Amino acid sequence: MSRKRVAVLISGRGSNMVALIEAAKAKDYPAEIAVVVSNRADAGGLLVASAAGIDTEIVDHTKFGQDRDRFESALQTVLESYRIEIVCLAGFMRLLTANFLEKWQWRILNIHPALLPDFKGLDTHRRVLEANAKIHGATVHFVVPEMDSGPIIAQAAIPIRPDDSEETLAVRVLKVEHRIYPLALKLVAEGRVQLKKNRCLIDGVPVPNVTDLAPTDPI
Ligand code: GRF
User: Fold this and answer.
1) CATH match for 111-219 among 3.40.50.1220, 3.40.50.170, 3.10.129.10, 3.50.50.60
2) Distances in Å between the alpha carbon of 202 and those of 3, 31, 197?
3) pTM (two decimals)
4) Alpha carbon of 46 to ligand 1 centroid (Å)
């Protein structure tokens, strides 16, 4: 089995990146993390990746001013130099243009801390509490030009408790993020995700119910 070469793109601490690096340590995992790329030189995840023996690269968006095309072409050059086959956004805080995404169509994944299609965008934990929602969670999806809107590959839900705060939700959602991102990457790397009418099928059937994807131990 040839393992798919993956780039993880980060902007911050990189806990999802770590989850992917850990998963890829298993011999039978179908992907390897070939490089971690950050758009910020001070991203904490860079040191963690280096300590794990993974190559790191910085493509500093501020050097390109408002010129997104030049930023993305620098990014593309890095990805090509590592012969990357799949890109995983993991707390990468830049929007990517349609032009760039076209090159990576169905080969670029993102993780979002909410149950999409609800609560797109930032500050999801605050907003679910304000909305008095009862269920929250995380979603891995293919990236399309419209933010947080691509076909869903994996989701996991958690209950919202009466005493939950943004902080407690952040901790519990992150726990499920760390489970579903490695799972989703595995499915994509194994070629088990197909698209039908803009929806993902896994092994030919719709993405299972969220609760079937998340282990049921207390979270
Ligand atoms: C995660 O909550 C992820 O869902 C969101 O950004 C956060 C990144 O956290 N896209 P980390 O850097 O992976 O710890």
Assistant:
1) 3.40.50.170
2) 19, 17, 14
3) 0.95
4) 14
| 21 Cα to the center of ligand 1, angstroms | 15
> What would the pLDDT profile of 170-217 be if each residue is shown by its tens digit?
999 999 999 999 999 999 999 999 999 999 999 999 887 665 555 554
Pick the CATH number of 1-104 from 3.10.310.10, 3.40.50.170, 1.10.10.10, 2.30.29.80: 3.40.50.170
Determine which residue's CA is closest to atom 9 belonging to ligand 1.
91
* Active site annotation includes 61: no
Considering only CA atoms, give the Rg of the chain.
17
How far is 182 from 150, CA to CA, in rounded Å?
18
Token pair listed for 184: 């989703």
What's the pLDDT at 129?
98
Here the tokens at position 114 are 């909410």
> Which residue positions in the chain have pLDDT lower than 50?
217-219
Whose CA is closest to atom 6 on ligand 1?
Answer: 91
Per-residue pLDDT, 31? 98
